[in-house]
Amino acid sequence: MAEKVLVTGGAGYIGSHCVVELIHAGYQPVVVDNFSNAVRGEGGVAESILRIEKLLDTSIEFHELDLLDRPGLEKLFKKHSFSSVMHFAGLKAVGESVEQPLRYYRVNLTASMNLIEVMQTHKVRNLVFSSSATVYGDPQRLPIDEQHPAGGCTNPYGKTKYFIEEMIKDHCRAEEDWNAVLLRYFNPIGAHSSGLIGEDPQGIPNNLLPYVAQVAVRRRECLSVFGNDYNTPDGTGVRDYIHVVDLAKGHIAALKKLKENCGCKVYNLGTGRGYSVLQMVKAMEKASGKEIPYKIAPRRGGDVASCYADPQLAEKELGWKAEFDLERMCEDLWRWQSMNPTGFCNGTS
């Protein structure tokens, strides 16, 4: 029997790509999502999950569930015997978190506490947590390794990720039979090479590349570049962009690490190279063959000038390394966006 892995937020961008890799690796994912950042398809199942079923010629168990619904979560754990949990569910927009901090604290922290407590009740002791490089705050040095101080976050979203990490670390210290891998991602972009699944933000995209892609298909008129006066080569923010499929494979490597009774481990998942906003615009223009108009706008609250990873620890201990280069990331993103100009709503199903 294949091991059952609960995937929270599994219909979203990163979660759905991890579901694909879980199936490839021989696991049986059970997906829960509350549709806060996913599109509902036929039969009340997430469109992303329906497309994965078609792509891989398989069936996937899906439940509409909000982790704030503690009784619903208990019911799910009574029904299944999970070997481990991949926890993606949560609100994730930096700018929105600055505007709505209490909502971010309530949703992200309560959901994670509910999940960990229900796992504890049902003796499920293996967890992979979707964290973020935002826990590092404004970098004191570059590239950022796992020993870099964390917690000096510049926005409430990052603080929720940091607080959840601390909860998990404390719980692993208190419960010695628990294992957790905390994955601090940098900036996931790209899409599955089939063009069937990709990032489909609900409403106006909060991240750079989905917005750029929507401008390229003329779904948006113009890109706003938030700040051109940072201390970077061209004045625009520099980030470490990683292909979402590479990121998903990192989660499979983390699941395997749990088998070693590893305790609580932290790894960066990034490429180790930073690109500026304007470099990304040029790369997407090349991939799409389209001009991408942009305007300079004021800096956005909570943003930092530069942030890129030292991913060597993940390579050493997980046997994982990002494979795809920037050109491939942009090509796959463009394939997804051009095949699905309005996202999951009426693209290629």
UniProtKB/TrEMBL annotation:
Highest taxon in the source lineage: Eukaryota
GO CC list: cytosol
Listed SUPFAM superfamilies: NAD(P)-binding Rossmann-fold domains
GO biological process, one term: galactose catabolic process via UDP-galactose, Leloir pathway
Keywords assigned by UniProt, alphabetized: Carbohydrate metabolism, Galactose metabolism, Isomerase, NAD
Signal peptide per UniProt: none
NCBIfam families: galE, PRK10675.1
Free-text function comment from the UniProt entry: Catalyzes two distinct but analogous reactions: the reversible epimerization of UDP-glucose to UDP-galactose and the reversible epimerization of UDP-N-acetylglucosamine to UDP-N-acetylgalactosamine. The reaction with UDP-Gal plays a critical role in the Leloir pathway of galactose catabolism in which galactose is converted to the glycolytic intermediate glucose 6-phosphate. It contributes to the catabolism of dietary galactose and enables the endogenous biosynthesis of both UDP-Gal and UDP-GalNAc when exogenous sources are limited.
GO molecular function terms attached to this record: UDP-glucose 4-epimerase activity; UDP-N-acetylglucosamine 4-epimerase activity
Family: Belongs to the NAD(P)-dependent epimerase/dehydratase family.
Ranges for domain NAD(P)-binding: 6-332
Organism: Menidia menidia (Atlantic silverside)
Name of the protein in its database record: UDP-glucose 4-epimerase
EC assignment: 5.1.3.2
